[in-house]
UniProtKB/TrEMBL annotation:
Region of interest called Disordered, as start-end residue ranges on this chain: 85-177
Membrane-spanning segments: 58-80
Keywords: Membrane, Transmembrane, Transmembrane helix
Compositionally skewed regions (Low complexity) per UniProt: 131-142
Domain of life of the source: Bacteria
UniProt feature, compositional bias: Pro residues: 115-130
The protein's name: MucR family transcriptional regulator
Amino acid sequence: MDLVPGSWRTSPTAGWTCDDAAASGMSGATIRSDSSTLGHVMDPVGPLPTSVYWRRRLLAVGVALLGLFGLLWIVTALLLPPGVDSDDSTTGRTAHVEASPQAPGTTPAADVRPPDPGVPGTPAGAPPAGPSTGPATPNAGPVDETVRQDPAAGPPVLVPSAGPAPATGPPPCPDAQIKVTAEVGAPQYPEGAKPVLRLVVANTGPTPCVRDLDGADQEIVVWSGDGAKRLWSSNDCVNPSSSDLRTLVPGQPVAFAVNWSGLGSVPGCTTERDRIGPGAYRVVTRLGPVISAPTPLLIGT
């Protein structure tokens, strides 16, 4: 079929053609239709099987997607504020469990008398106080507790102890800023049991301070119910002495526990120790010159 120069016609086989070679700058050029081009894209042409070309295309698409995901991850990491974590961490105060060192002393510590005004032998300067109406309750804050063992008692109570105080830091604790409390493990024990007795030291001031809680300055004493007879002391048979500097923080008392064997004693343990019978007793503690109020202890009643 002849083509008229300068005109467009439709060819049944080649689609659209241009006869004006001078206007187009090409001689006999053919413009393929969109349907012909799409057919070549969907049906790869080459010396290799069609499946090879499709695998290559899929691989290229996969690499492109991986690159896109990696770019998104990097952008997200850069946009997040530093230090953000999806899990909340909980911190707590952890201490190791150890028993206070014990060494036999050569001089027994002085007796601790309940601060009752009418009882002979009450230490000078001790404020008068009567027995509390019930067993002492632990403080709300965490208690750092170290155990001392009565020689005839059972296994010690496992409790944590604090680490050494820093070389520089809070000032020393004056006696007026220290409160000593006597506590019992239970309000009543059966006869033959080994009661847990505690000496609790607390800082009543507004700021932390440092105190040497030397074992020789600590004492737990069991008295008769009327406070007239001294029955047992934690320092009669064992009087440990060692420097134990502690930083006392307000609201965080420190406790020292003793498993009492239930046997009586005298300073130096020079006599045979007899078991204390059923009855109502008092427990008094001290740290140096600071003495606690008595706390009731019932045995077998």
